[in-house]
Amino acid sequence: MFDSGFGGLTVARAVIDLLPGEPLVYVGDTGRYPYGPRPLDEVRAFATQIAGWLVDEHDVKLVIVACNTASAAALEHLQEELAVPVIGVIEPGVRSLLTATRSGNVGVIGTVGTISSGAYQASVAAIDPGAKLTCAACPGFVEFVERGETDSDQVHVLAERLLAPLVDAEVDTLLLGCTHYPFLARTIADVMGREVVLVSSADETAFEVRAALGADAATDPAHPARHRWYSSGDVAWFRELGARLLGPELDHAEALAWPDRPPGA
Ligand code: DGL
After folding, report:
1. Which pLDDT score is estimated for 265?
2. Is the pLDDT of residue 88 over 60?
3. DSSP code of 199?
4. pTM of the predicted structure, to 2 decimals
5. Mean pLDDT, to the nearest integer, of 31-38?
6. d(CA 19, CA 219)
7. Ligand 1 centroid vs 115 CA: distance in angstroms?
8. Higher pLDDT pick, 33 / 262
């Protein structure tokens, strides 16, 4: 599983809870975050490099792209390139969104890369062409989470400005279409109002992983797996904030160094 940083830990939590016996290898590419403002082909190159490393070095049997920006940029490419199943977060998120809405008036927030890719607009239209969708990019949210600042006055002020189009559109359900955003759920809920349902892709993605693993899925909590956690940035910070955000399973972190030039650069 990989993300640009701490965001994928929201998906890791759901996967560990549902499949406690499956050993997870997590890469937080904190040395190169944020992905959101980068061109999609650069994000695709990073995603290809990380997914290839997971398969080559760790012999993983399945890859989870626990990042919306990387899913928008690279999911199809990875599914064609890799010999193992690859699961992204966009379609599971859209399923959660369209299951939860009562009125069909829905919103999605994500990074600039994700929203401008059109991936959510296409996925919602494919699953429910009648849904009314309002999208907004939220530049800056990821940086607050990476600093461990999930509940400050500053993030609240930013949220009021960025979420205004969703409040004006009177959506009844809002999908947090960036895996970092569930860590800002309290702030986002304060701004959106209590009647708006917030959904994320984490649980639905975990269900998809369980379905892909089939009868082999290790679901027995009596035999918890040991996981490995990698960061390409500040490893001590990854360990400290990661444990705060994910929980006790993140009890160590290892350094991951990429060659100077990413593939394709
Ligand atoms: N968690 C990533 C996502 O879901 C954040 C991308 C970023 O680093 O900007 O899109």
Report:
1. 46
2. yes
3. E
4. 0.95
5. 96
6. 4
7. 11
8. 33
Cα of 140 from ligand 1 centre, angstroms: 11
Q: What separation in Å is there between the alpha carbon of 194 and the centre of ligand 1?
A: 25
Give the active site residues.
67, 178
> How far is residue 79's CA from residue 95's CA, in Å, rounded to a whole number?
20
Determine the atom of ligand 1 nearest the C-alpha atom of 180. 1
Which tens digits make up the pLDDT trace of 220-241? Answer: 889 999 999 999 999 999 999 9
Pocket test for ligand 1, best of 1, 75, 111, 245 (most atoms within 8 A of CB): 111
Residue 230's CB is within 10 A of a number of other CB atoms, namely 22
Q: Is the CB of 67 under 6 A from ligand 1?
A: yes
Give dist(CA 91, CA 77) in Å, integer: 16
Residue among 211, 141, 132, 144 at smallest CA distance from 176: 141
Atom of ligand 1 nearest to the CA of 4: 8
Q: Does residue 235 sit in helix, strand or coil? A: helix
Answer whether 24's CB lies under 8 Å from 230's CB.
no
Q: Which two tokens stand for residue 191?
A: 């701004």
- The C-alpha atoms of residue 106 and residue 155 are separated, in whole angstroms, by 23
Q: What radius of gyration do the chain's Cα atoms show?
A: 17
Residue range 89-129, pLDDT digits in tens: 999 999 999 999 999 999 999 999 999 999 999 999 999 99
Out of 68, 112, 144, 245, mutate this one to test ligand 1's pocket (max ligand atoms within 8 Å of CB): namely: 68
Domains of the chain, earliest start first: 2-88+203-255 (3.40.50.1860), 90-201 (3.40.50.1860)
Place 259 in a pLDDT band, splitting at 50, 70 and 90: confident
